[in-house]
Specification:
Elements (H helix, E strand, L loop, with lengths): L16 H8 L3 H6 L5 H9 L2 E2 L5 E2 L3 H4 L1
Keywords: Developmental protein, Disulfide bond
InterPro entries: Frizzled/SFRP, Frizzled_dom, Frizzled_dom_sf
GO molecular function: Wnt receptor activity; Wnt-protein binding
């Protein structure tokens, strides 16, 4: 991921990076197909959300989903 600080629980209800990584492995096929080049970034934002400068969750940009 292109950031250093993350927040848990994530959007999927995981309380740590190990749990998030384990669940994220279920989406490996989506990333490997490369039908959407930003799939990996989107999934990382959902499973390992960025922590903002004030400790808040930084949500994925709407443009990432369009």
């Amino acid at each position: 991921v292109p950031y250093n600080f993350t927040v848990f629980p994530n959007y999927m209800g995981n309380f740590g990076q190990r749990d998030a990584q384990h669940e994220l492995e279920n989406y490996a096929a989506v990333v490997d197909v490369s039908c959407y080049e930003l799939a990996a970034l989107f999934l990382c934002n959902v499973f390992v959300p960025k922590c903002g400068s004030r400790g808040q969750v930084v949500r994925p940009c709407r443009s990432l989903c369009n």
